[in-house]
Amino acid sequence: MSAHFEVYQDKAHQWRFRLKAGNGEVVASGEGYPTKANAERGCEAVKRAAAEADIVEAKAA
């Protein structure tokens, strides 16, 4: 199976998404949204941002 987003409703009736790798491991998850459509837009936003994202090292505080 290839990587994919799952959209689901949690126990608090909020819509969420998670990105799963091809092996089924969750590699990212989103915040709660009031509607399924908003969660789906969150998936699209992650797809757009990740395509342009650089990898940077976080500096210790």
TrEMBL record:
SUPFAM superfamilies linked to this entry: YegP-like (SSF160113)
Residues annotated as domain DUF1508: 10-57
InterPro entries documented for this protein: DUF1508 (IPR010879), UPF0339_domain (IPR051141), YegP-like_sf (IPR036913)
One Pfam family matching this protein: DUF1508
Name this polypeptide is given: DUF1508 domain-containing protein
Lineage: Bacteria, Bacillati, Actinomycetota, Actinomycetes, Kitasatosporales
